């Protein structure tokens, strides 16, 4: 992949991230020159947390992930990043323990090893969000109690090599690459039924491109493959330009098993997966079929993908949670490509 291809992948990724996150959470980093630096702002400690410690008049604490897109990303190297987390308590600086910095670096490196050659910022953000909730928040609260010190944290990125993924045109091989392998430890009973599939009553049409959503209630990853195969029996759907999808399953103990596939529409699968997370939809599969009309839609295509899926999910009662609970954040499995 050359520099121009990398640049296009980066631009597409930024469009996807902007469609998932609000502009006060994800925004250009104006502290650095150029247009290749962006910041994610994560809430860590708020007024309620300080009140629980009996501390008054404390400012909320945020952790910032600064991302720098280099020319070799995503073909050869991951983005460069640093994590900025600064605050004071009673005039004393507070700092994270070194173990948190090492753990974040390890998590990011593991994700790059799993998805090397592909865009991975969304995966990093999800991993860091989960780690803040599961470990860092409580660690910082303990540090505040002890009045330890803190400053900016700069985390190194390990250099790794990448290999290009191969695609197969046969249906079974396509399904294999679409996360159809079960990553659950739950036993799957025999004769798992094909779920009932619902499709949009009205498509979204823009400049001759047509978008239709399909959803199904599922309990096992095995059913993802069943639903995809059933939908592709429809020749019109099978011949569509893209059939991107995502799924989210709550397993025993509240563990969330999730995955997505772009089907050639780079970033679309992540958009759908992000949507399911935002509304905290569980035990559901969603696919969006797009027939390209010959006119490029730019970022509007991601808006239509999200809107047509959200409309169908809402019609069937999946839009009811405003935010994820603690169990979801701390117990999540990510399917790998």
Automatic annotation (TrEMBL):
PROSITE patterns: RWD. Gene3D superfamilies: Impact, N-terminal domain, Ubiquitin Conjugating Enzyme. GO terms for biological process: GCN2-mediated signaling; regulation of translational initiation. Keywords: Cytoplasm, Repressor, Stress response, Translation regulation. SUPFAM superfamilies: Ribosomal protein S5 domain 2-like, UBC-like. Pfam families: Impact_N (PF01205), RWD (PF05773). Its main location: cytoplasm. Residues 12-135 form the RWD domain. GO terms for cellular component: cytoplasm. It comes from the Eukaryota. InterPro entries: Impact (IPR023582), Impact_N (IPR001498), Impact_N_sf (IPR036956), Ribosomal_Su5_D2-typ_SF (IPR020568), RWD_dom (IPR006575), UBQ-conjugating_enzyme/RWD (IPR016135). CDD domains: RWD_IMPACT (cd23821). It is found in: Cytoplasm. The keyword NAD does not apply. Belongs to the IMPACT family. PANTHER family: IMPACT-RELATED (PTHR16301), PROTEIN IMPACT (PTHR16301:SF25). This is UPF0029-domain-containing protein. It comes from Piromyces finnis.
């Amino acid at each position: 992949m050359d520099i121009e291809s990398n640049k296009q992948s980066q631009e597409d990724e930024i469009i996807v991230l902007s469609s998932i996150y609000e502009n006060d959470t994800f925004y250009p980093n104006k502290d650095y020159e150029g247009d290749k630096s962006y910041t994610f702002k994560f809430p860590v400690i708020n007024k309620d947390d300080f009140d629980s410690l009996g501390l008054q008049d404390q400012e909320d604490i945020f952790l910032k992930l600064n991302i720098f897109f280099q020319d070799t990303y995503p073909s050869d190297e991951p983005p460069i990043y640093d994590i900025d987390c600064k605050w004071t308590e009673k005039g004393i600086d507070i700092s994270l323990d070194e173990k948190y910095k090492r753990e974040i670096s390890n998590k990011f490196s593991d994700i790059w090893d799993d998805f090397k050659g592909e865009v991975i910022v969304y995966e990093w953000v999800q991993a860091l969000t989960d780690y803040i909730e599961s470990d860092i928040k409580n660690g910082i609260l303990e540090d505040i109690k002890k009045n330890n010190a803190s400053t900016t944290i700069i985390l190194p990125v390990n250099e790794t090599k990448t290999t290009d993924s191969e695609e197969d045109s046969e249906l079974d091989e396509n399904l294999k690459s679409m996360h159809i392998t079960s990553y659950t430890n739950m036993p799957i009973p025999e004769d798992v039924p094909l779920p009932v599939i619902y499709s949009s009553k009205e498509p979204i049409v823009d400049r001759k491109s047509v978008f239709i959503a399909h959803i199904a209630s599922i309990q096992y990853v095995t059913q993802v493959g069943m639903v995809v195969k059933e939908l592709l029996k429809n020749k019109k759907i099978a011949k569509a330009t893209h059939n991107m999808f995502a799924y989210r399953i709550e397993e025993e103990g509240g563990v969330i098993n999730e995955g997505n596939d772009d089907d050639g529409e780079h970033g679309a699968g992540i958009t759908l997966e992000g949507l399911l997370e935002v509304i905290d939809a569980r035990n559901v599969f969603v696919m969006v079929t797009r027939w390209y009309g010959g006119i490029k839609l730019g970022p509007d295509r991601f808006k239509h993908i999200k809107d047509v899926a959200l409309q169908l999910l809402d019609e069937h009662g999946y839009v009811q949670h405003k935010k994820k609970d603690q169990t979801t954040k701390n117990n999540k499995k990510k399917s790998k490509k």
